[in-house]
Amino acid sequence: MAAYVSRLNHIALHVANADRIALDLVAKFRFKLFAARKTAGWRQLALRKGSAVFLVNERLEEEEEKKEKKKKKGWNPGVTSASGSADDDRSSGTGGGGSARADSTCLYGAQPSGRVDTACNVCFEVEDVHGAFSALRERGCRFLVPPTPVEDHEGLVLYSVLKSVVGNVCHTLVDRTGYRGDFLPGFREVRGIGDGERAPEGGACSVTHFDHVTYACPRRMTPEVMKWYEGNFGFQRFLIGRNEDVNEGFVLDRDGIGLRLTAMEFWKCSESGVKLPFRNDQEPDCKFVIAESLPHQGPNQVDSFLEQHGGAGIQHVGLYTQDIVSTARTLAQAGVQFVSPPPAYYSQVGKQQEILDAGHDPQLLSQHGILLDTDLRQDASGSTPRLASGENKRYLLQVFTKPIFTEDTFFLELIERRGASGFGEGNIRALWRSVQSYMEGEGGDSPGRGTESVSVETGQR
Ligand SMILES: O=C(O)C(=O)Cc1ccc(O)cc1
């Protein structure tokens, strides 16, 4: 292993209209806009829910970019006065690892080449950016940004950006241990946008962290992706289902479903550098899932993603919630649209009982399209799964949203785990069918389309 990942810092989205996506995340998904930044050429908005952070990037139009650059000319890099313009990029950085100096082109990421909205950077915290850079480069990794110090009045971070083998996905590696600020140098704090504002009164939304990131990849690419993450970051494979073949992955290949899934996770295998994102040391692990389509089962969501996205990438991100029913209700009331499972899902033999046995109300689950899968596997490690008292079964609840971008290039998922750490076969089938029926039937009314644009910073339409 070349680099020890200590935690996931944020996931970056590159979109044509940052206000619209940020507004959806605030008003519908109840994220809080907590930091913002405008540099020459870019607008960046950081939103948080629990420890899940999205950094929404928008490329500025040329005119605006010129204006920003002009503004910069009169700017004194040595001055970090809080009285500066709120939009000023008051950070400093170099492109080459020397002493820090002003550089407004520091994006903490890379500029994607495609034209569609995309989630394309998973930023990891590491303890030794220089060490990771040397070791990863030695292993043949391609770096887009060498180790670069950036600082403001709250301290200094060191970051570097490398390309993954998955389409346009990059990884920013950042060491934040020398930084006291809330996010990254150059971002100004934003107060009062989100966390209840613009959201329905009283609704619960207990999203705590990113549960998983799912990549959509071309056929037969999985071994290369696995090898890359195992060799470079020490990720470890874990088996999704009972019927999974170690070499083939978890394969669903009949009744119109042609899907190969393979999953891996990072923190448990890190030998050093482990730093927990939750103060109480209850580290949630973020999993990475690789989805490939299989031939012979017709047009499908993975191929459609690859086509619209222009190659492999992040198809969706799972948001962990402690109470999926109330979270889905709150989000639905706020305007989030979820895909629906096939009507027969809740009436299939045994499903109602399975839901009741898990202590849930089938009516409530069906109202929000929430799927439940009981994990029938024995715990191979012999360890006791973490279950609430009175529960004797491990199960998993999931629901997918409709795409949140204009194209079908990204959606979110709510997931609640009750002792089940993998992905249930029944749920995967139903999720696949939910997305297929959305794509085939009602592709025109996704929430991403035609939403009013509102300036998140000014709150004005
Ligand atoms: O269950 C999950 O969250 C998965 O990630 C499995 C999955 C992956 C891709 C699909 O198009 C449908 C289901």
From TrEMBL:
Q: Which domain of life is it from?
A: Eukaryota
Chain ranges of the VOC domain: 7-176, 209-368
Q: Which reaction does it catalyse?
A: 3-(4-hydroxyphenyl)pyruvate + O2 = homogentisate + CO2
Segments spanning the bilayer are none
Annotated region (Disordered) at 65-101, 439-461
What Gene3D superfamilies does the record tag this protein with? Answer: 2,3-Dihydroxybiphenyl 1,2-Dioxygenase, domain 1 (3.10.180.10)
Query: Which cofactors is this protein said to need?
Result: Fe cation
Any one GO molecular function term: 4-hydroxyphenylpyruvate dioxygenase activity
Output the Pfam families linked to this UniProt entry: Glyoxalase (PF00903)
Composition bias of kind Polar residues appears in 452-461
What's the family? Belongs to the 4HPPD family.
Q: What name does the UniProt record give this protein? A: 4-hydroxyphenylpyruvate dioxygenase
| Species annotation | Scleropages formosus (Asian bonytongue)
